[in-house]
Amino acid sequence: MGRSGHDPEEDAGSPTFSPSAELPPLSPADLGVLRQVGARWQIGDTVRALPVDPQAGEIRSSAVGGAHRAAMLFLPDAPGQLTATPVVERPDTAQGRVAGGLRRLLLGRPLTSASILRERMSKIVALPVLASDLLSSVAYGPEAMLAVLVLAGSGALGLSLPIAAALVVLMVAVGTSYRQTVRAYPHGAGSYLVASDSLGPRAGLAAAAGLVLDYVLTVSVSVSAGVAAITSALPSLAAYRVPLALVVIGVLLIGNLRGIRVAGNAFAVPTYVFLVAVLGLIAAGFVRAATGGFTVVAPPPTPAVEGLGLLVVLRAFASGATSMTGVEAVSNAVPVFRPTAWRNARTVLTWMISILIVLFVGLTLLFHLNGLVPRADQTLLSQLARLTFPTGPWYAIIQAATALVLLLAANTAFNDLPRLLYFMARDGYVPRRFLHLGDRLALSNGLIALAVAAAAILVAFGGNTHSLIPLYAVGVFLAFTLSQTGMVNHWRHHRDPGWRRRAAINGVGAVLSAVVLVTAAVTKFAAGAWAVVLAVPLLIYLFRRVRRHYDHVQQALGLHPDHPRGVEPAEDAPPAIVPQQVRHLFLVPVARLNQAALRTLAYVGSLGQPALALHVSPERTEADRFREQWNTWGDHIPLETILSPHRVIIQPIAGYASALRLTHPDLTITVVVPDVVVDHPWQRMLHYRTEQRLRRALRRHPGIVVTSLPTHLTR
């Protein structure tokens, strides 16, 4: 899975996200088999005596807008090497050109593969992009802690300070742990790679499952919370809560599909505005408190509905820990930083943790000094802002900045989940299509999957996803716990200088994270945490099923030595990979003798290989009539007619081809179907799609190839 003990300085210059990831190189063992198989090939010189020049100027250019204007389709690099130009990438249909124009309008011009290094972010841009989720969580994390304590009465609110101190210890431990993770694993993937490398694949998958759930919930909850803030200010929009949320997800998706750098520049400013606004609020709040001698205002009397005990304290601790959602973002996204990536990532992570502690401690102290308690009609942050700025525009600015950053907090997930899926796809645990880089070098399939999943949750819950906020702790702290436990094992195995101190830091973080995880899972189980507790093993099961499939594909398609001489292949064996062992039979289904059929028969006859024509007839008289027509043509190719009393066409052809292959497993049967190419998509409905239907019917049968010979209608 992952690698440990390597030198980050050595790895820092190698691009982790590569357009070639979908086409990994062959292993030394595969190269050895390839060399052995190639040595057995026997092929005539006529195969290499091409009738065309592959790099001829006529092939590399095309007339555009007249005979004297030529556009280059391919640029020659070296003998046998061409580079495709944007001209050849353009769609050749009206529908394709319209779709391509819309794509360019929304996403911009495609970027070349060589631009991947230029798309990385600077520290100033990466901070707000990766920290938006973490910093926005202070808008509800301290309030979530106080909302639990107030259940034991207003007298229990004084415990917010020692609990906040414990949370600061957790923040420092987790932040320091992830700094060490970035140093030890500079290629990213964070908790998934650390747990996989140090604790085993199942622990890595558990961490990945927790993060997948966390990222999807981040998008749905953050967007719904931001939309709720908007509809609170504009009640007339409350009925359009779900459509507004879907529009926001769409904007985030398009922004991220435009590329890392573009999305970072677009979404950085609102986070900085929120940061400045809240820091200004904290500074003004302490100045106001200092004028009063830091006198603590008694909170309004609140009757206790629960007894104050250890369970309440642990629940408050776990609820306050939601302020840390998003702290793992940097370790997952190391490759998006400019070189040296891991150094810049550590710097940004330090900034993030420091700012988080300042915001969390500052707000918690001000809530305590001003005697503020959670209210159903107004958030604590709103109460503090209104109290600190009773007049002027600052209250509105803080509220607007909070609403905006809550909306953009989802962007952290859009940055991290596609990269997590990339690493998992590289290991074969999710579909390989998550390795694909889109037009703008973004992990497009991961972005789209995240947007669809978050939108489904929003629609399912009618835009009211606040009940999902406590569930953050289960998924994200599962990843925290496994990551830090894995780092303890990492230091124990490698024993670098100072490893005991590093292992102790990770151990403290692991214990505190485990406390939050268990507390959240137990206390919130009936309130919905059961869904996450069940979803994690379900996701692990799905990941393992995907990996089992890819392992089976690798075993079946990997390079293995060919059948030894004198050994007959099995009935279900695939075609040989040495040309002199391939025996051909071309099978041509013919419905009627017309230009399309005759051209297909001429093509097959020109190959100089055994061929057989096949005609399916609904009744005997039609079969006899067709045979007479065949004899009139000259009976140049053997003909077999099949009587189909129930007028079924595709299944008899497929069954006959399959029976031929079963009785002669050494044959490679190529079914060549005459195909009429129409001008417009709607015209396809007017013709039988025989090739596609045969391909579906025969795709499970080894040794059978289905192809077509297109015949274009003359204008």
TrEMBL record:
Broad class of the protein's primary localization: membrane
Give yes or no: UniProt keyword Cell wall biogenesis/degradation: no
Entry's transmembrane regions: 147-174, 205-231, 237-255, 267-287, 348-373, 393-414, 441-463, 469-491, 503-521, 527-543
Q: What topology does the record note for this protein and the membrane?
A: Multi-pass membrane protein
What are the record's GO terms for cellular component? membrane
Any one GO MF annotation of this record: transmembrane transporter activity
> Which Pfam families would you find in this protein's record?
AA_permease_2
Cell location: Membrane
Report whether Transmembrane shows up as a keyword of the record.
Answer: yes
Instruction: Write the record's keywords in alphabetical order, separated by commas.
Output: Membrane, Transmembrane, Transmembrane helix
Q: Enumerate the residue ranges of region (Disordered).
A: 1-25
* PANTHER family the record matches: POTASSIUM TRANSPORTER KIMA
Name of the featured protein: Amino acid permease
Please name the source species. Micromonospora maris
Task: State the taxonomy lineage.
Answer: Bacteria, Bacillati, Actinomycetota, Actinomycetes, Micromonosporales
